[in-house]
Design goal:
This protein is an alpha+beta fold and 645 residues long. The protein folds into five domains: 42 residues; 76 residues, membrane protein fhac (Ubiquitin-like (UB roll)), CATH 3.10.20; 76 residues, membrane protein fhac (Ubiquitin-like (UB roll)), CATH 3.10.20; 73 residues, Ubiquitin-like (UB roll), CATH 3.10.20; 357 residues, Porin (Beta Barrel), CATH 2.40.160. 17% of the residues lie in helices and 49% in strands. It has eight helices and 27 strands. The chain has a 16-stranded antiparallel sheet with strand order 10-11-12-13-14-15-16-17-18-19-20-23-24-25-26-27, with no helix packed on it. A three-stranded mixed sheet has the order 1-3-2, covered by helices on one side. A three-stranded mixed sheet has the order 4-6-5, covered by helices on one side. A hairpin with a 4-residue loop joins strand 18 and strand 19. The chain is globular and about 95 Å long.
Amino acid sequence: MSNRSIINVMRSECFSPDGINNRFSYFLVKTVLVVFILASHLAAETEVSKINFHGTAKFTADRLMELIHSQVGDEFDPRLVKLDKILLTNFFRKQGYLTVTIDDSLVRDKKADRIEINYLIETGRRYFLSGFRFSGTSRNYEKAVRRITGNMQPNQPFDEGLINTKRQELEDFYYNTGKPFVEVSLDYEFQQDSLVIVKMDLKEGPTVYFRDVRFRGLKLVKKFILRRELEFKKGERFSRKKLDDSQRNIYGTGLFDYVRMEIVPLENDSVNVDVRILVQERDPRWIGLRIGFAYEQQESYGNKLELTAEGGHRNLFGTARSLSLHLIPSFLYDIDNSKIVNPENQLTLVYVEPWIGYTRTPGVFQAGYHQYRPLNSADFNVLSTSFRVSHKYQNRYELSGELEAKFVDLISQGKVDTTLDVDAGKDQVYSLSGLLRKDTRNNFFNPTDGSLVNYSVTFSNSFGETRQGERDIKQYFTFISSWQRYQPLFLRLLGKKRHFTLATRLKGGAIYELGETKSIPISDLFFAGGATTVRGYSEQLLGPGLLDANGKKTSGLGGKLLFLANAEIRFPLFWLIMGEIFVDAGNVWSELVDFRPTDIRFTTGVGLALLTPIGPIRLDYGHKLQREPADESAGTFHLGIYFAF
C-alpha cells in the first residue's frame, strides 16, 4: 500500500463518526489515567525531604526559604514549585538581576516516597541604577518631578518594578494638579555593561479646570446634598483624587446604589471640562432583620448575641436626614447553668443629622428604653436620651462628643447588699463625654495587623435619694483608656511555616468623685470577669461581690477602678477553625484607694473559633491561676461571638 493510501485510510477512520468517538474515548480515558497516576504518585502522599538552591552565593538559603511556599516536611505540590520559581524570579529581578533564569530539578526517593526539590538559579549580570534623565518637563513641574524620584539614589540595584511605581506616582501627580492628558514614556540606556540610565519623556498637555457639575438620576434627593459632598469647586484645577474622594463621599451618604463620575470635554475648549454625576437612588424607606454582637462605647462585647428588628426612613424630605426605630433583644448561653438567657433588651429611636456646622460631622440623637438583666449583678432599667457628634479624620482618628441624660431604676434589691450606702434605687444622671479613637486594624472581625486605641473622659452629675430619704447629689469623672495591638507572626512549627497573630490589650478605667465618697449609679460602675474580660471567672463575678452562706460569690457589685491585661495567640488549624492560647489578668476595686497590685487575678486557657459571616464563634476555657479560698471552681467555659478583644 502506498503512503498516500495509508494516509487516506487514517483520514477516513479519524473523520468517520465511529472513529471520532472511539479515538476521543480512548484519548480521554488515557489522559484521565495519566493524570490520576501522576497525581497519586507525585502529589498525594509524597513528602518534601529537602530544598536546595544552586547557582547563587549572594543570598543565604534561609533568606530564600522565606520567599517560597514549598517547605520541608510539607506534602509535595508541583503547583507550588511553579509559584516558587515566579517568586524567586521576582525577588532576583528586584535585586538588579534582570536576566535571571530559574529552573527546577526533582529527585525522588521511591522507596521512602520522598522528594528533593532543587532550584537551579542563573543570575546573570547584576545591573545598577545610574540616574534619571527627564525631557518635556516644564519649569513649574520640574522640581516636583525630581522630588518624586529623588529617593532613588544612584548605584542602588536596578529594580524595574520600582521604576514603574515611580512612573505611576508621576502620572498621579500630574492627574491631581490639572494635567489629565499627561503621557509618561520610559526608555533605558545601558552604560559600562551594568549601569542603567532611566530616560523619562513627559508630554504634559494643557492645564484643565473644572467648569460645571451636572446631575443625572436625581428623583428625591436634593442637589445640594451632592454638592456639599464634592471635594472640588468650579474653577479649580482638575484633580482625579478629588473626583475619587467625591464619589466615595456620595456613596457614604447611604442614599445611592450606584454613583459614576464622568468627564465631559467641551467643544472648542481644551482647558475646561464639565463633570457629569450619574446616580441611582436607593428606596428611602427600609425595614430589616439582622444578627450581630453587642457593641457599646465603641467596643465589642462578643459574649452577647443581638437580634435586631428595625426600620426607618433614610432621606427625610430629600435632605439625607434619617429616622429609624430599633428593637434589640440580646441573648447569651449560660454555660454554668446550661441555659439561654436574655440579659438585655433595647428599644431605641434614632435621628441622624448628617452635617453639623457645615462640615461632614454627623449628629445622632437617640431616645431609648433599656432593660438590664445581667447574670450575676443587679437588675435595672434605664430610660435615656442623648446627642452625639463625631468627626473622622484622614489619619484614621475619630473625635466624638456626647451629651446624655438617663434615668436609672434599680428594680432587683435581692442582688445588692442592703447594708451598703447605696441609693434607694432611682438616679437621674446627666453626663458630658468626649472620645478620641484611632483604628488601624486591617479587619474588623479577624484582625491580624494594626491597632485600636480609645481614650474617653466623662463628667457626670447624678441626682438620687438615699434610703433615709435624703437628697443625694453626686459629681464624678469617669476615665477609660484602652489599647489593643495585633501583630502578625510567621513561625516555623513542626517543620512548617505557620501564620500566627499575637493580640494584646491593656485597659484601665477609674471613677473619680468630687467631694465626699458616695455611691455611683450601678449603670456607670465597672465589672470584670467573663468572655470578654478575664476568662476563667463567670460573668461579672471578678471583684467586689456578695457571698452566700457557703462563702460562694453569687453577685457582682461592680467598682470604681478597673484594670485588664490580655495576651492571646491566634492561629489557623484547618478549614475555618482557629485556635487560641491566652493569658488574662485584671480585677475591679470598690474604691480607688483599695487598689493593691497583689489583687490582680491571672488566668490562662485555650479556645477554638469558627469563622462565620457574622464574626468568629468561639468556645474558650479559662483556668484560674490564683484560686480564692472560697472559690470552688478551677475555671469556666465561655461561649461567645467575636474574639475577646
